[in-house]
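Journal club side-thread
Mid-discussion, someone asked how the predicted structure for our own chain would compare to the paper's figures. Pasting it here so we can look after the session.
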Amino acid sequence: RMSVRKISTLRSQLIDCGLISVVRHGLKNFKIYVNTPETTPAETDLVLPWANFDFEKPIKSVPADSASTKLQKLPINQSNNNQTKLLLSRESNESVSQNQSNTLVTPKKSEKDVLNELSLDSIITRLKDTFSLPVVSRLKVLANNSYTKLKWFSDTIFKAKSQVTKKLLSNTRWLYNPASQEATRFESNDLLKRGLESALLQIAEIVYKGKEKIQNKAKFIYVYLRNFMANAVKQYLIDNYELTEDDEIELNLLLSF
């Protein structure tokens, strides 16, 4: 490798040999470019043959018999062979243990869990015939996938509706009136069917996230559902039937708990 000072000192000789070229750059500056040297012709005798040494050694053809004899005469290091076998056995054991750790072992469900799932599927199938899918989903969340809690919520809803129906039919005007049957059924009263989901959301917010602590949660849920259904039945009758002011006042008194 040649330094910058050496190139500057031998600049004229290098230019004469065609190894570098000097180009003016601006008014006072010059740039020195190194030219690509020409390759030596093949028929030329080299003055310094060692300078053009080729690192690629020619491959010598070896007879098959001599190669086999050489391989047979090679010394075998028994300790290295044992170490290789030990490493291979360790790698195989590690791979087996890693595969075993990667395979997840699913625990078997107990008989109690299986019965709980079957009971949940059974009651959910029955609820889907009456309630909408969002209502069933809310009930599953509130019950935390417990059959006992889900059955309690289902019984509480029908119990609250039964009390509202009984209170409405206690009046002779609504006892044999077809309007009372339409107003107290989930299939015909959209206010009951659609409003039940929002009622369950409000119950969850008040009971589980409310600031005030509720002493008797079961009683609160029952009273809340009963009042919601009473308002839904009353509003259905007012919207779909012509009632006088006296009829509305009487209906409000009848469905007030």
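Post-session note: Residues 96 and 102 are 10 Å apart (CA to CA).
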